[in-house]
Amino acid sequence: MTFNELQKKRHSVYDISKNVFLTKDEIIAMIQEAVRDSPTAFNNQTVRVVITFGESSDKVWDITLEELEKVSASPAAFAKTTAKINTFKAGFGTILFFTETDTVKKMEEAFPLYAANFGDWAEQGLGGAQQAVWETLTEHDLGGSLQHYNPLIDAKISKAFALPKSWKLRAQMPFGAIETPAEAKDKIAVADQFKIFE
Asked: According to the UniProt entry, where is the signal peptide (predicted)?
């Protein structure tokens, strides 16, 4: 499958399960390769990743649900939230994406002329890594979605997995076997998205 074919195939998939035919070691290896081969500004390598399976993956979503209950508007709203979180928990695992903030600070100090940009560049590097991971999951017929429950869950996730304080949580990606394929989403007009000059 070509890169463009993978791009077209990749969508947010919410109906996922544990019916995965790859081993955990195979999944770990392909995620590591995708992240390590993703570009970052000045090769600063600010992306950090935690890969969770089984009870550890469940813990991510248990923490998320606990924190969401505290801010839920009503029991009915929380019931909907619980159903949504359970779809993530039904997956084979969860990938947590972080930015290593100490590295960002060191780069700001080392290159003061560009200091204002390193935060943005770290986000760009993170986006590239997330895209690469999503593509490799797609290539292996696994589905996932990118979630953003940070900063609501940051402190408890950091404590639960004994992570360095310099790791700032940016996103969560539950993944698993695709039980129901996602539908393609509408795209804006090409003319509204691109300008070409010669």
From this structure: none
136 within 8 A of 38, measured Cβ to Cβ: no
| CA angle, residues 16, 19, 22, in degrees to nearest 5 | 110
Residue 131: how many CB atoms within 10 A of its CB? 15
Report yes or no: 9 and 178 within 8 Å, Cβ to Cβ: no
3 HSE (CA, 13 A, CB side) = 3
CA distances in angstroms from 123 to 99, 130, 149, listed in the order given: 8, 10, 16
Q: How far is CA 182 from the centre of its chain?
A: 18
Per-residue pLDDT of the chain (198 residues; tens, 9 = 90+): 888 998 888 999 999 999 999 999 999 999 999 999 999 999 999 999 999 999 999 999 999 999 999 999 899 999 999 999 999 999 999 999 999 999 999 999 999 999 999 999 999 999 999 999 999 999 999 999 999 999 999 999 999 999 999 999 999 999 999 999 988 889 999 999 999 999
